[in-house]
Amino acid sequence: MELKTLIAKDLLSIQAVFFRPDEPFTWASGIKSPVYCDNRLTLTAPEVRTDVENGLKTLIETHYPDAEVLMGTSTAGIAHAAITAHLMGLPMGYVRSGAKDHGRQNQIEGRLEKGQKVVVVEDLISTGGSVLEVVQVLRDAGAEVLGIASIFTYGMQKGIDRLNAANVKNVSLTDFDCIAEVAAAQGYIKPADVRRLIAFRNNPSDESWRDVK
C-alpha cells in the first residue's frame, strides 16, 4: 500500500482527521470548515504512531539524506521529532513559539551549531505561517534548513505560495486530497462530498463550497 494512503487510513481510523461537511466546524479565524484535524491523537494510538514515525523516517531519509538534526515545532511537532530522531540516531531539539523570559531565554531548545543541516518536523501544514516562523528562527541561528517533514498538508494555495516565497521545501506523509478520497471509499463521507471538500481546500474563506453538488 502506498505510504500516503496508509497514513490517510490511519488518521481516519482514529479520527485524527474527521470530516463533517454537513455540520462544519468553526475555526478560530471564523472560517467554516468541513474537516477537523488533531494529529496529537496519533500519540495515543501506538500502531498508528508507529506508521507515522517510520513514515517520517522514510521521508527524511529519501528527501533530506544530509539531515544532521531534527527540530520539532512547538508543541505538536516535538514528540514526532523526538521519536523519529531516535529511530534515525540523530540529535533533536525544538523551537519555542517565543523566547523564554527566564534562564538563558532560549527559543531553540537543544544544541544547534551554526551550519548544521536541519529538518523541521511539523504535524500539520495549512497556511504555512507558524512553521515558517520556526524556519526563520533556525536560519537566524545559523542553521541550514533543508526543509520540512510533516504528517499532513491541506495543500492550500496560500500555504504553497508562502513556502515557495521563503524557498522552503515541504514533504508530507499524506494530504487533503488523498484523505478525502480514502474517506469516500471507506464510507466516512459520501462520494459526492469529495467535490465539496476540494472546493473548500481551494478557497477556505468562500463558503460556497457548501453548495457544491
Q: DSSP helix count?
A: 7
Radius of gyration: 17 Å
Averaged pLDDT = 94
* End-to-end Cα distance: 31 Å
Strand percentage lies at 15-25%
- Helix share bin: 25-40%
Runs with pLDDT <50, length 5+?
A: none
Order of strands across the widest beta sheet? 7-6-5-8-9-10
Query: In sequence order, what are the helices and strands, one letter per element?
Result: HEEEEHEHEEEHEHEHH
Structural class: alpha/beta
Total E-strand runs: 10
**Quaternary structure annotation:** single chain
**Overall outline:** globular
Sheet with most strands = 6 strands, mixed
Describe this structure in words.
The chain has seven helices and ten strands. It has a six-stranded mixed β-sheet with strand order 7-6-5-8-9-10, sandwiched between helices. Strands 1-4 form a two-stranded antiparallel sheet. It has helices at residues 3-13, 46-63, 78-88, 129-140, 157-165, 176-185, 193-202, and strands at residues 17-19, 25-26, 32-33, 35-37, 69-73, 92-95, 108-109, 117-125, 144-153, 170-175. It is of the alpha/beta class and 213 residues long. α1 (3-13) crosses α6 (176-185), α2 (46-63) crosses α3 (78-88) and α6 runs antiparallel to α7.
